[in-house]
Please model this.
Amino acid sequence: MTTITERVGRAWRPSPVTLWVTGATALVGAVQLAHPAVLHLLQRDPDALHSGQDWRLVSPVLVQSSGWTQYAFNLTGSLLVGVAVEPYWGRTRWVGAYLAGGVAGILATYYWEPHGTGGGSSDAVAALIGMLVVSLWSDRQPPWWPGYLYAGYFISYLAVLDAVGPLPAMVVGSVGAAALMTLWRQGRYRGLRTGLTVFTVAGAAAMIAMHDSHGVGLTVGVGLGLLLRAGRRARGRA
Model:
């Protein structure tokens, strides 16, 4: 019988980019939390960007401006979702989606909050979630289950958080993740795919309507996944 440790080991081995990117983000975030000057240097800052600090189009992905809670939440997502995405899409596409989602979210926030500051890797994680959702429609059996449970919680929590606040968001996020887990345990993979797809489409639309950049990250990830999936099909027919 395969042990839990063996299953986890098999999940991590084909995901070096996930480990490297998450590790680098963890390191920069830890330094930033200990030395706030690092946050001020790297976070989203419209005035600094306009003065020529072009790195602020990308560097906000490396810092977590809301503290330890955001740090733990985003790094958990990077690991759990990343390890489900990388074996299917590959290292280059993983990095491309992560950067595209992160930068798109930063640009959207600069537009929606022209005087705001901050940072976080959650828009990049949202893009990985979008890629994960597309991959669920390409494989008969879903990948490592913690990734899509996190995805369900992430989308449900953030969509409700924007509308009514943290406590209801935690309840709805937990219910959403539990529903997906139930479908997986029952072997109802079509229902799992459909449920997470509905979460993603509805959540992304709601977030964008409320000027939440996580919706942009989700949309970027789904869009890239669909383009890559179409390309694979076209090569398969050639």
Remarks:
- DSSP finds eleven helices and no strands in the chain.
- Confidence is low (pLDDT under 50) at residues 1-6.
